[in-house]
Amino acid sequence: MELKNIFFLIVAWYITIISHKQEPENPMRIISNDEFKDIIKKDLRDLVSLTIGISGITVKELNRPMLGRLLMEAEKCEEIIDAYGIKQNAYWYPLRKSIGVIRSYSRVAYNFLHLRYSAPAYRLVPIENDFFAALEESIDCLFKSFMLRLESFSSFLHKVGMTDDLRALDSYPFSESIADVKLEDTLEWTPLEAGAETAVYLASSFLNLAEESRFIKEACQKKTDDYSSIIPDIVNEETLRLISNSFHNLQSKYDTILYHSTITRTDENLPALRGQISIVYHLLETSTLLLHYFQRHEMQIINNKSEEMQQHFNQLFTIMVDFCMFYAQQYIAAAQNLCKDILKTYSEQDQIKVPIPNYRGFHVRPSTLIAKIVIHYGSEVEMKLGNNVYNASMPLELFRANEEINLSKRCAIAKEILEHKMIKEDADALYDAKLMKKILRIIFLDLLEKQKIIIYENDFSFDNLTPFDSETIADFAKRGIALYLALGKIDIISDTQVEFSGDKRVLHDIQILAENGYGEDKFGNNIVLPKELSYLKR
Description:
Layout: H1 3-19, H2 33-40, H3 45-54, H4 64-82, H5 93-118, H6 131-159, H7 195-212, H8 214-220, H9 237-258, H10 263-266, H11 269-298, H12 307-334, H13 336-346, E1 349-355, H14 364-377, E2 382-385, E3 388-391, H15 395-419, H16 433-449, E4 453-455, H17 473-486, E5 490-492, E6 497-503, H18 504-515
């Protein structure tokens, strides 16, 4: 076959392929607003019935089964109507938005009622404020706002013709079951080898989260009518959800490992810690739900609300900040001594000796890194130098050790000077200034060669150092070295060691830090810390 014919055959084949490309599937049929109503009316019947019915009750009639069913119906209906593209339809979008609002209110209200009936059994650490009185005030305030939203939703439902053929509220079996008796405790409690380790982990993690959640306290110190100063710069949904989930993880770990262990029977501090974790988790979870509601449904139209709606928005915001966040940080603060008591009971104690930091002793970076390690684990650790004991969790305490370290260095270098061949036999000799400076240079270079001192700056000399009247060569040499030590131009190399005592986990990490120059080389330049200490970067 000729080449030209082959070419035409290939072109014809390609055209055939192109012309027979699969046609796109037919798009979904567009339905009218009335058709949509007829389709969803049956699925939304219970939600609409509950909305209409609950909008006529009092706060005393509100109960968990009612809210649980309302929440379930809202979530079910959201999923159904979303499949029909309701978020892109101007006429029906208010329905979708209203159901989202009902879902948010139901969850928050359910959490509050859960706390009303469950928190008294949490063995909560006492705090200054009356949590349960504040909880009841918040339930009343939330209910008023909830009723306003239900009334608004009911009006929309009447407008679109979805309020016929409804069930009466009393046809639903809603009643609050409050337990005033309990089953006999017959479950066999099991010994647990890892009980102490888990207790230490939970207490340390709680203290870490206390540090990470400081932004909550900062938010509580702001005026709640200044929304822009709180959201999103101090608090946003992402950070609040992360910290809330972290407390939830602690609760899960306790329930998985410790809940049925004998250790929780013999130490009442552990169930008390579980209660603190739970109350904080529920309050932060509720804060997150409210913050999601604000950011999703309210913040965009905050300046376009009626006076009544603005008032209810302010009340909800107050519930989030002045109740949920405020009491969360109150219980976080109150539980810290409890956590420290648990650490004292279960953490394994030890002692280690490590050299002092090469570069200028316990200055800012080494002291801060040591304190961060101690704070990370939440234990009490002490550093001992000579007869003095320092709190290793406080950088300023460790700074003070430098006074003793520098004194020790000066004494050690003075001894070296007095043993020097040019001083040893003539320590009390008086020479002219020129000769004294020459001798000092020789001593200085010998100390440098013997690695007794280290130079940080090369641009200095002894020319401006003048002997005092009647100053001996020994005193002049000691004063010269001490002066440049004080000016930071040199340092005296020391084999001084300090002793740390306390939680073995903390000491292990301090040992690693010391082996890595306390995060610095001998000239004070930062170095990369090992992977085991990666948490110090936070």
